[in-house]
Specification:
451 residues, alpha/beta, 15-stranded parallel β-sheet, 3-stranded parallel β-sheet, globular
Length: 451
């Protein structure tokens, strides 16, 4: 736009650039006028993909502007950042979708004001809605929908009827391949309602934060679906028996398994999964093996813990398990293993030739003397919050030269909240040549610590 103001020749060139643009990403600041955004979009006659990052409140005016300015839009994403609020209602969203006959991908953040879902579209294939709350009515009739993500707020007073929602979803969207639902209201009845639809094309099932989901749900899932490639039951109450059912049904298909924050599973169940799922490439067991003595801490400390974690702790207190457990994993295809927050582990033995990413963040009781890592392709080890002795042992095992750590990696926030930072100075002393020969080295591996 700045170039267009130079002269008539440049303005003509820029006009052709706008016309040929197929994808535009705009950041809408609080000072921006919606008319200005509309004038920008109106120049893009061939626009098919649009991403709006809203730093100001979003309402029906924004949707109307997009609908009018982008007649051929196929993919639309709206991100809500900072203090901005999404004031779009369910009726307004339904009207927008019905007007966009070519829309196939829709992703919208901050949907706490929808109130209802009435989405009918023959073209929509991907639907992501986050921050949902208190949905009174649900109709999602999209025969070509292949992927859906419904992320609810973590409010105890959420009145959404998830059983009815899952039942409606299964009956009206028969081609679904990927399902992600995150809600503390998830329960066995909701899972049974979804499973009853018998979605034959389903390949990814993610039901997160459902502490009321038990092995009964696992039994229903494995009885209906035999070709899942990804299964995420993080935050559920399944046990080692549930893991056994998963392993019996999906040994040839499952490549990604997420069992984080599952307080009823043990290291035995994790080892069994690793042994029985030969095609597993990603395995997340974060916070599932925790130190019970730490959880029975002071009242003051417990008050700082979130409601979901408290529920997990209550469940764990009933388990007849020792405080510390050992974990042995030998796997030929595993590429990423996450044990973040597994403070109940004191020994770890890994023999995974393809492993390239290992997360040990907050494994506070892991003993350096019982740590064995035989993973020649390991690229990244995350060890935020671990003992200094363990961190030193990890460096001894995986780094050929402490000086190689340096500033190769800038600070970066990871998915679990830790940061990638430089190695502390006391760990960067140069080893002697004799010491180097004695160490097991992974020359391309980097250790990431957080503060």
């Amino acid at each position: 736009m700045g170039a267009a103001a130079v002269c008539k020749g440049w303005r003509d060139v820029i006009k052709r650039v706008w016309i040929s643009a197929e994808e535009v990403k705009l950041k809408v600041s609080p000072k921006s006028q919606i008319g200005f955004v509309g004038s920008v979009l109106h120049k893009c006659a061939g626009l098919v993909r649009l991403t709006l990052t809203m730093e100001s409140d979003a309402d029906a005016t924004v949707l109307a502007c997009v609908a009018f300015s982008c007649p051929n839009l196929e993919a639309f994403e709206m991100k809500i950042t900072g203090t901005a609020a999404n004031r779009i209602t369910g009726d307004e969203l339904a009207r927008f979708i019905s007007e966009k006959r070519s829309l196939s991908v829709l992703k919208i953040d901050g949907c706490s004001n929808l109130g209802s879902l009435n989405i009918c579209s023959s073209s929509l294939s991907t639907l992501w809605l986050s921050d949902l709350s208190c949905i009174s009515k649900t109709v999602i009739s999209c025969p070509n929908l292949k992927e859906i993500s419904l992320d609810f707020t973590r409010q105890e007073n959420d009145s959404t009827d998830l059983v009815a929602m899952m039942d409606s979803l299964g009956r009206t969207c028969s081609r679904l391949r990927n399902i992600h639902v995150s809600s503390i209201q998830l329960c066995n009845d909701a899972v049974l309602a979804l499973v009853g639809a018998n979605l034959r094309s389903l390949r990814m099932l993610s039901l997160v934060l459902g502490s009321k989901i038990t092995d009964a749900s696992v039994a229903a899932i494995v009885s209906c679906y035999a070709s899942l490639e990804l299964l995420d039951l993080s935050g559920s109450s399944i046990s080692d028996s549930g893991i056994g059912m998963i392993c019996n049904v999906f040994p040839q298909t499952l490549s990604r398994l997420f069992l984080a924050l599952c307080p009823n599973i043990t290291s035995s169940g994790i080892q069994f999964a690793a042994a029985q799922l030969p095609f597993l490439q990603l395995f997340d067991c974060g916070m599932s093996i925790s130190d019970l003595s730490f959880q029975r801490g002071s009242t003051e400390d417990n008050e700082l813990i979130s409601g979901e974690t408290k529920k997990c702790q209550k469940l764990q207190s009933a388990k007849p398990l020792p405080i510390y457990q050992k974990l042995i994993i030998k796997h030929g295809r595993l590429k990423k293993l996450s044990l973040w927050g597994c403070s109940g582990l004191d020994a770890l033995y890994l023999n995974c030739p393809q492993l390239n990413d290992l997360n040990l963040n907050l494994c506070t009781n892991l003993n350096p003397e019982t740590l064995m890592i035989e993973c020649p392709n390991l690229k990244n080890i995350h060890a935020s919050g671990c003992q200094d002795m363990l961190i030193g042992e990890i460096h001894n095992k995986v780094l050929s030269d402490y000086s190689a750590v340096g500033n190769h990696f800038p600070s970066k926030r990871l998915a679990d909240g830790s940061k990638r930072v430089q190695v502390p100075q006391f760990l960067m002393q140069q080893p002697s040549d004799d010491e180097k020969r004695k160490r097991f080295k992974l020359t391309n591996c980097s250790v990431h610590l957080g503060r």
